[in-house]
Amino acid sequence: MKTLKVFAAAAMVLSLSGCFMTKDSLKKMLKENPDILTEAIEENPAKIMDSLNNAVRKAQQQQFEDREKAQNQERDEEFKNPKQATIDEKRAIWGNKDAPITIVEYSDFECPYCKRGHATVEEVMKKYGDKVRVIFKNLPLDFHPMAMPAAKYFEAVALQGADKAKKFYDYIFENQANLSTKREKFLEEAARKAGADIAKVKKDLDSEEVKKRIEADMEEARKFGFNGTPGFLINGISIKGAYPVEEFSKIIDQLLAKK
């Protein structure tokens, strides 16, 4: 076979020259004889696929370990120098106002991962009770057409009280599929379920106050490196993504132990 002949010739050259095949010479040989690889794959498909799969798994594991290492280093630095989010007591805040732990949630009402993030925040609040308070901030993404309208509705409802804002927030995430199908009707329905004055909500949707709040939230999120959703700051320590409650507990427990 041609493959064996080429390798045999290469072996003879190497034995006579007394040197080893370099990466460049091997690359040149394969470039001039591409059928070597083709024949090898055809003759040993299972073995080669196993090797490729093993290589992919190793690469993925290495990427995971590198990402985990970088994240841990970033987190250690944030414990020393936590990020400073703007906390405006007039914004929608729920939980104990004097809680030692403040979670700032940067979220998009249309994002499926934010729905999971919402569920995790609910778990955290149940687990830690009065030790935690939550501040919701808007990070509507461009490719979610109903994200910005939902953010406007949320802030317009929030102008009527944090309790109404919390009900709106829960209702949207718990029934998120309706946002893309019922659209504005669903947002109005959520505001009504929250007990908001609908006429006032509609009047405030395009107000300067609502606009400024959303713009400030988005600018702050970008400043902290939250390019996707959801993102969280726990007393200035960041979590990027829809991580389970255990990841939140690692940070919260460490912060409470210090206090």
Which regions have little confidence, pLDDT < 50, spanning 5+ residues?
A: 12-17
Order of helices and strands: HHHHEEHEHHHHHHEEH
Shape: elongated
Number of separate structural domains = 3
Chain-averaged pLDDT: 88
Topology:
Layout: H1 2-17, H2 23-32, H3 35-43, H4 45-80, E1 93-95, E2 101-107, H5 112-128, E3 132-138, H6 147-158, H7 162-174, H8 177-182, H9 184-193, H10 198-204, H11 208-223, E4 231-234, E5 237-240, H12 245-258
Parallel strand pairs: 2-3
Antiparallel strand pairs: 1-3, 2-4, 4-5
Please characterize this protein's 3D structure.
Helix 6 runs antiparallel to helix 7 and helix 6 packs across helix 11. By secondary structure, this protein is α+β, with helices and mostly antiparallel strands. It starts with a helix and ends with a helix. The protein contains twelve helices and five strands. It has helices at residues 2-17, 23-32, 35-43, 45-80, 112-128, 147-158, 162-174, 177-182, 184-193, 198-204, 208-223, 245-258; strands at 93-95, 101-107, 132-138, 231-234, 237-240. The longest helix has 36 residues, at 45-80. The model is unreliable at 12-17 (pLDDT under 50). Strand 4 (231-234) and strand 5 (237-240) form a beta hairpin. It has a five-stranded mixed β-sheet, sandwiched between helices. It folds into three domains: 1-43, no CATH class; 50-81; 93-258, Glutaredoxin, CATH 3.40.30.10.
